[in-house]
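<instruction>
Derive structure tokens from the sequence
<data>
Labelled lines for chain and fold:
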Amino acid sequence: MGFSQSALKTEAKAENWAVLFVGTQKNANQILKDKDFALVDRGGKPRAIEGIKGIVVLDGTWKQSKTLWWRNPWLLKLSRIILNPELKSLYGNLRKEPREGLLSSLEATAFCLEALGESPAVKEHLLEVFQTQLNRWKQN
């Protein structure tokens, strides 16, 4: 079975999965209002997070991630996670994001996991790992 049919050796029903792809969402400001996290269905309408059993994170350049998403019919069936985090990317001036307010894949994943109910310690650990990676990058 391919990923489109199973994940983690169990059947993967599209309604139970969400994709974390930080792209544009036409009505994101209306959906998010004062929230940092929202889940929308395929039509762009807000939906409850209940029933979400897993997330798919597309990692790569923005162009690569968008291509992965658009070329995979199963991913297009998934709900989409919209983020509007208060925190700024740890990248700082090391890397220019395509627009203001975007995070690295790891930062977005950490933020998303906390919003989905994981312990804040999970987010903090992932951010520490990312900061260590950046510190090593700065030294080279």
